[in-house]
Amino acid sequence: MTMAATAARRTVLAAILAALTLASVHGQVAFDRLRDAAGEPRNWLTYSGSYFSQRHSRLDRITPDNVGDLALQWVYQTPVMGTWQATPIVVDGVMYLTQRPNDIVALDARTGRVYWIYRYPTPADHRACCQANNRGVAVLGDKVFMATLDAHVVAVDATTGAELWDTEVADKNLAYAFTLAPLAVDGKVLVGSTGGDQGIRGFVAALDAETGQEVWRFHTIPGPGEPGHETWEPCPPNPETYCDPEAWKHGGGAAWLTGSYDPELNLTYWGTGNPGPDFNRAQRPGDNLYTSSVVALDADTGELRWHFQFTPGDPYDYDAVQIPVLADITRNDTVFKVMLFANRNGFYYVLDRATGRFLTGRPFVSVNWAEALDDSGRPVETPQPAGAPTYPGVAGGTNWYSPSYSPGTELFYVPAWENYASIFGGEPEEYEEGEFFTGGGIAEAAPVPDAPGMPRVTRGPINDWTEALGTGAVLALDALTGEQQWKFEMTDVIRSGILTTASDLLFTGARSGYFQALDARTGTLLWKVSLGSQIINGPMTYEVDGRQYVAVISGHALSTFALRDPI
User: Fold this and answer.
1) Which of 308, 299, 291, 318 is closest to 229 using CA atoms?
2) Sign of torsion, CA 191 196 198 203?
3) Catalytic positions, written as ranges
4) What is the pLDDT of residues 167-207, one digit of tens each?
5) Which SS3 state, helix, strand or coil, does residue 242 take?
6) pTM of the model
7) Nearest CA among 189, 176, 179 for reference residue 138
């Protein structure tokens, strides 16, 4: 037997052994397991840990007293360059995650051993923007689901990695793409489009988990005759600048982060992105629903039940794709069933998640584009003079990285950018198929440390803005009032999500590469380790054989920690 034949035989035997191992440990992930995911904290079954998207775990083996004994257990290194923003999913000791551009990797969650890798043939001519990220997978039954950069959704066998179906959901040539982790709900796989800066018409779609056939589609930009279309107002007579009479056709509203789900109400909640073009408001008169909003959809039909718009007619590219966090909070013998939402526009909101009614809101970072929120939650706008800094800047008071809510502390934890502003300006821009459609550029501005009243300005197009401006912090807010309870300041900006646990620990990362644990009640730093590269994903935790692990991605490496074995 030749060496090549011997190597091939070993590869086949390894694949068979991996499949047999997976078949023996991997349980079926029925809908009821996803619905009750918080009740089996040994696993991490959805992108945000549970349908309520709290990024909170009931695991408590790692505590404030012993967190200093955390030690690195294993590392998985991706061979693909570029920012790695995925959150792993763990099912019964098996970890599933994506790596760039569109691979699914199955690992032994205890050792990091690779069981299999599914490689999707991503076409080189896809139009996905912004470093073409992929943030993870969904699981349901015996399948693993991934949304792709060329606007497909694929299902693979959880045991072998074999492809089961592949559905084209939208046209990549029009800049439709998917960069989110799907959401699996009761026999369906839900995805939302990206491309809001490239003139797409955003949507959320549901596919049948068994067949890949589309079940429903909700367009985040309503067409003629649909409720909300009237908010894309007609152009005024003889406009002073270019106005597009059919702006809705390229209206943006991308839903590019994973939504949440309330099984009791059977509602799924999705944040939506900016209108298009981003910065030239005069080109698209009106509030431009359902952009920069959260929409509540019937999970069976995709029918809109309610919406709430955070930034009407958004000229700042603030979006509203932050993760909608759901919670049941009891105060003074009253149970509040709420949605908690720290918006990129700098305001923190509490909504009734059954009706969308605005309950309260307040700024959590410096805000000067609006002076307040009225009784309905609509901003009282204060546009800044031409050339003056607007707070927060285009990256927002926070961004796509996930917050956390702890039922134990009743605090909402948000990764925030403080002291950060931009100088905005818009200009006419005609839509070109598949190309960027932003309507102008911006300039960045932030206070100089030794002269707080003077802005430091770096000018350039939208894609050149720098993250060196502003400072990062973890803010702990009273979940029902938004009042700040504590703040942990960083020396640079933050792009990491947040994880909390039942032992009152908070894990997060920094752009500098530090992975750190804080006391969730006080914000006191308890432990940190340098991983050598920026952290841009959300930490998660799981348990195998009675041992709790915490996993985080830094640069091109997934690092997994646990307490040192006792001597």
Assistant:
1) 291
2) positive
3) 317
4) 999 999 999 999 999 999 999 999 999 999 999 999 999 99
5) coil
6) 0.93
7) 189
